[in-house]
Every structure is written in structure tokens, then in C-alpha cells.
Design brief:
The chain has 219 residues and is mainly alpha-helical. It has one domain. It is built from eight helices and no strands. Helix 1 packs antiparallel against helix 8.
Length: 219
């Protein structure tokens, strides 16, 4: 625990602060340096904190790192690469959560309804602003992203609102907010601090998901 707290103070938190400072100051050089360090720092923190690190969480974070690196560029293939990487990361989070609670429950219908509601929101408010070639991919990505929230919500309900699953749910919800802000910033009207709020909610999302798995015992 002492080693983890030292790393938190001198490893992860400074990287988070420097990354957010880069986005607040709109400093591209700082972004290129510190953004790629963000997820590896969180992976180390997760590995130190979890009694038994979950390989699916590590894979999810690894795909998140790949997505971060892709989105440092501004070509159309960077968007495709980032979307594919994060989609695979969401699939890993869903798998990791489902493996902690085998079996299904009627309350799963609530999770399916959540995915449907998310799709409707994206179709109504985000899809019209996206380039035509991206629309099918955006809808597929939304299914996986909302699936993280839905899976966590389902498991929270069947486990008596276990804090680990509740935290994973909020992590998925923050991911949804982050990607929604990113989509508006990319395809709608840009704002000066748009990227800063995207990164803030993204960092909180990844951290909440990782900590949620730690609270569950790292399995």
C-alpha cells in the first residue's frame, strides 16, 4: 500500500496534471509528450493496487493507450484507428465485468434498454453532425460504449449495488460524456476548452473503471 501511495503521488497524479495542463494551455508539444504516458501510468497504478490484476482490464487500458496515440494525429485514419482501439477496449471491459458474475438475470433487460436509449441519443444529437462515412462505425462504437455502462449497471443491480460495479458504471458514463464532447468538438462547433473537458472526463472514466476492478479484488 505504501508503495502504491508513493507511486500515486509521484507517478500517476503528476502525469494527469501535466496532461490536463497541456490541454488547458493548448500546448501541442506537451500533449505529444504527456498524453502517451497517461494510460501506461494508470496501468502501473492498477497493477500495484489490484490483489490479482485482471488481464481484460490491462487489455482494455492497452487499447485505450493505442486510441490516445491515434487521436494525437489529425488525419481521417487517426479517427478510425482511435475509434477501433477504444471499441476493443470497451469490449474488454465488458468481458472483464461479465466474468466476475457468471449467469444472467431478468434485470439484464434494463441494460438492453440503456443501450437502446444511448443509441437514440447518439442518433438524434451526434450522428447528424458526423461525416457520412463515419456514421455506421459511430453507431457500432456506441453499442460497445453504452454496453460498458449497461454491463456495469446490470451487475450493480444483481449484486445489491456493489460499490465496484457502481464505480464502473460511472466510469462508463463518464466515457460516454467524454466521447460525446469529443464528437461535438470534432464535428460540431469547437470551443476553446473543449479538448480540456474531453480529457478531464476521459481520465476520470478510465480511472473509475480501473479502481472499480481494484475494489472487486482485481479479478
Amino acid at each position: 500500500m505504501e508503495r502504491m501511495m508513493l507511486y500515486l503521488a509521484f507517478g500517476y497524479v503528476p502525469v494527469v496534471c501535466l496532461t490536463l495542463a497541456a490541454y488547458a494551455k493548448r500546448n501541442r508539444i506537451m500533449r505529444m509528450i504527456f498524453k502517451p504516458l497517461l494510460i501506461p501510468s494508470l496501468m502501473i497504478l492498477y497493477a500495484l493496487a489490484a490483489p490479482k490484476p485482471n488481464v481484460w482490464v490491462l487489455l482494455a487500458l492497452g487499447f485505450g493507450w493505442a486510441g490516445d496515440v491515434f487521436l494525437l494525429g489529425h488525419h481521417h485514419w487517426n479517427v478510425y484507428g482511435g475509434m477501433a482501439s477504444f471499441a476493443l477496449g470497451h469490449a474488454c471491459y465488458i468481458t472483464g465485468m461479465l466474468l466476475t458474475q457468471p449467469g444472467l438475470h431478468p434485470i439484464l433487460l434494463l441494460s438492453v434498454a440503456w443501450i437502446g436509449a444511448c443509441l437514440l441519443l447518439v442518433r438524434r444529437f451526434l450522428i447528424p453532425h458526423a461525416p457520412k462515412r463515419l456514421k455506421p462505425w459511430a453507431q457500432c462504437y456506441t453499442v460497445l460504449l453504452s454496453g460498458v455502462c449497461a454491463t456495469a449497471l446490470y451487475l450493480a443491480c444483481v449484486s445489491g449495488f456493489n460499490a465496484a460495479y457502481v464505480l464502473c458504471f460511472f466510469g462508463g458514463l463518464l466515457f460516454f460524456v467524454s466521447d460525446g464532447l469529443l464528437a461535438f468538438d470534432m464535428f460540431g462547433r469547437k470551443t476553446r476548452l473543449g479538448n480540456f473537458f474531453v480529457m478531464t472526463t476521459y481520465i476520470l472514466a478510465q480511472t473509475a473503471l480501473a479502481v472499480g476492478f481494484v475494489l472487486h479484488g482485481g479479478i
